[in-house]
């Protein structure tokens, strides 16, 4: 029997198929056996595994039920949404896999609230705006909002990670979606700051040149205490796992925290913005 070699690095769709084959074979199942469990033909299973047919949402949910992955960070439904995310920057789907198992997250954002702290309404406004600009399709907008919700849920595990967030002052002062959406978003930030596993800091305008980053940066500490860095420009994202380049970014983040407002002062500024005070 001919067996096609798979290259999971060829594309997100290829990675999906290769992982499905790996999980199936780890259980000792043939394609026919998985097909019976999922309610599909073995030909369909083969086509997805080899990347000749794209997965669907229904197919992914059936795979999760059959493989016992429903609701987990490794669910095929999550990976399906990554495959569908044509609007995601390079490197981001891989980053999300690390995000789901990180024990500490350090985030810095400019201009908009970090995704993990966005309300559904705020996230929807941003996605719909991208549709109007022609950057993504309406279907991709729906997937983007749903994918963000899944990322947020994945962090609410029994032992949640520490989440450190430093936001440029522009994040809370730039109105997104109108007063009602923005007021609810700012209120959500105040609630977020009350959690025992979070630290929220506003990076004020007046630190001037002492701001250590000019672009959004995410730093993840993994269970083995290694650190990965994900940074974005307008056109692409870059995931870095090399300690020689990641460690200076971690140092810069700590320097930024030292220049930022305390959490209490940050929440006070957020409340002032909610009340329309300068």
Notable features of this structure?
six-stranded mixed β-sheet, DUF5753, 2 domains, alpha/beta, 278 residues, Endonuclease, Chain A, 12 helices, 6 strands, 434 Repressor (Amino-terminal Domain)
Task: Describe the model.
By secondary structure, this protein is an alpha/beta fold. The protein has 2 domains: 12-84, Orthogonal Bundle (434 Repressor (Amino-terminal Domain)); 92-118 and 146-274, Endonuclease, Chain A, CATH 3.30.870.10. It contains 12 helices and 6 strands. It has helices at 12-26, 31-38, 42-49, 57-67, 76-84, 92-99, 120-132, 138-154, 169-173, 179-192, 243-259, 263-274, and strands at residues 104-109, 162-168, 198-203, 217-221, 227-232, 237-240. The chain has a 6-stranded mixed beta sheet, sandwiched between helices. Helix 10 (179-192) packs antiparallel against helix 12 (263-274). The radius of gyration is 21 Å and the shape is elongated.
Shape: elongated
Structural class: alpha/beta
Q: How many separate structural domains?
A: 2
How far the N terminus sits from the C terminus, by CA atoms, comes to 72 Å
Order of helices and strands: HHHHHHEHHEHHEEEEHH
State the strand order across the main sheet.
3-2-1-4-5-6
Tally of alpha and pi helices: 12
CATH architecture of the largest domain: 2-Layer Sandwich
Which regions have little confidence, pLDDT < 50, spanning 5+ residues? none
- What is the CATH fold-level name of the largest domain? Endonuclease, Chain A
CATH superfamily of the largest domain: Endonuclease Chain A
Q: Main beta sheet, described?
A: 6 strands, mixed
Q: Quote the beta fraction.
A: 5-15%
Total number of beta strands: 6
Whole-angstrom Rg = 21 Å
Highest-level CATH class of the largest domain: Alpha Beta
Mean pLDDT: 90
